[in-house]
Amino acid sequence: MSREVINTYQLEEILPKIIDYEEENYYNNIGVDSNLEKDLLEDLQMLDNKYKEITKSVIIRYQKIVEHIKQTRGRKCQICQYSFIMDNGNEYCEAHHIQYLSKNGSQSSDNVILLCPNHHRMFHYAHDAVFVDDLVDGKRKVLIENVEHLIDFS
Predict the structure, then answer these.
(1) pTM of the full predicted structure?
(2) What burial letters (b/e) apply to 2-21, b meaning 16+ CB within 10 Å?
(3) pLDDT at 4
(4) How far apart are CA 117 and CA 63, in angstroms?
(5) Are the C-beta atoms of 123 and 117 separated by less than 8 Å?
(6) pLDDT digits (tens, 9 = 90+) for 19-47
(7) What is the pLDDT of residue 15?
(8) Comparing C-alpha atoms, which of 83, 81, 80, 99 is closest to residue 91?
(9) Over 80: is that where the pLDDT of 95 sits?
(10) How far apart, in whole angstroms, are the C-alpha atoms of residue 16 and residue 18?
(11) Angle between helices 34-45 and 11-19 (to 10 degrees)
(12) How many whole angstroms separate alpha carbon 118 and alpha carbon 77?
């Protein structure tokens, strides 16, 4: 694995370069890489958005299943019961697939837990703090930072 060193500069260091960019020797005297200088000046002059066309495959999510789960489970985080009212009058919660769809997880209701945004981020970015047990009699034990929660999936 290679590492790339990125230098950061204060505005006071860069501003003289922008103002005096036509003076070739100025940059050489202060040791600024000419490619970095060129990139910076190009970026500053590029004000219009550029677009790139990308083609990718995505998993089709069946929103009717998620909507049904939200209706039956009360549109609240199944860990802390938090929700807020959106402008459309609905309570807000997020559906999380316990076994990620990208890793062949199912879209069935026993693979979906409703979470507030904070808990949802924890499920994605704090794997060591979150443990989800197997489904037993329609319930799962979920440990979050060693606090046990029994979640009903029926």
Answers:
(1) 0.64
(2) eeeeeeeeeeeeeeebeeee
(3) 65
(4) 18
(5) no
(6) 554 455 554 555 556 777 677 767 666 56
(7) 55
(8) 83
(9) yes
(10) 5
(11) 80
(12) 10
Pure H helices in 3-149: 11-19, 24-30, 34-45, 63-73, 117-125
Beta strands per DSSP E along 81-138: 94-97, 112-115, 130-132
Q: Are 82 and 107 in contact (CB under 8 A)?
A: no
Residue 122: half-sphere exposure toward Cβ, Cα within 13 Å: 19
In angstroms, the CA 82 to CA 71 distance is 15
User: Residue 114: which of 61, 146, 69, 145 has the closest Cα?
Assistant: 69
pLDDT for 52 equals 86
List, edge to edge, every strand of the sheet that includes 147-152.
Answer: 130-132, 139-144, 147-152
